Amino acid sequence: MSRVSAIALALGLAASSLALSAGAATAPSPAITAAVADASRPQADKDRDADRKPAEMLAFAGVKPGDKVVDFMPGAGYFTRLFAKAVGPKGRVYSLLPGEIASRSQKAVDGQKALAEDKAYGNIVPLVEPAAALSLPEKVDVVWTSQNYHDVHAFMGTETVAAVNKAVFNALKPGGVYIVLDHAAEAGSGLRDANTLHRIDPETVKKEVEAAGFVLDGQDDALRNTADNHTLKVFDPALRGHTDQFVFKFRKPK
């Protein structure tokens, strides 16, 4: 083999390895495409699609018709509504608001109430219970949390985070997935910025979730932003909606 060929082969292998570690993008299914295009979605949600890339996120999570999904700390329900349409009438979406958040955030309570009252989404089941309990009526296929993992640390403490991750593990079917999407903090910062900048070090998330028994099964880099230097609060007008975000897929072993 010539030196040029050897170099080309090495570069090809390196590129393949990088693509595998980052998680190759999966084409959205017709169910996911239809969910994003659903006319009953609030306009405010649609206006955020370019930044939040919902079709790619749901495809990465592997959401499909008939699935049972937990949206943990759903906010105003941006992803909850998408899940509801993507899983269809044979699926179910549990909109889970931790009691610890409900007791201190009227905005979160109002979001939960709006989901429960929205007649366009009949397969959403609102739940309010302690964060570490996750007492569900059935095992689920996907547990999803978006831009909230750092808040569990900030509002509930590290011991509660460990209990939450273990409860998620127990709530999933064997082979089920736990998706964590959050604002990235500076590498090596650990939990330093969770309560101030509302960010968390991705490596800290990996270690904590894997400690509960999960295996890292991929990551999606569609929401990464190299222009974000991780020093601003995520609500800063100069950056809001465009933070550097990581998306991890953890799988419960079969």
Automatic annotation (TrEMBL):
Report keywords, A-Z. Answer: Methyltransferase, Signal, Transferase
User: Mind listing the GO molecular function terms for this protein?
Assistant: methyltransferase activity
Q: Which InterPro entries match?
A: S-AdoMet-dep_MeTrfase_Alr7345, SAM-dependent_MTases_sf
Query: Would the keyword Nucleotide-binding turn up in this protein's UniProt record?
Result: no
Q: Which GO terms describe its biological process?
A: methylation
Q: Which residues form the signal peptide?
A: 1-24
Q: What is this protein called?
A: Putative methyltransferase
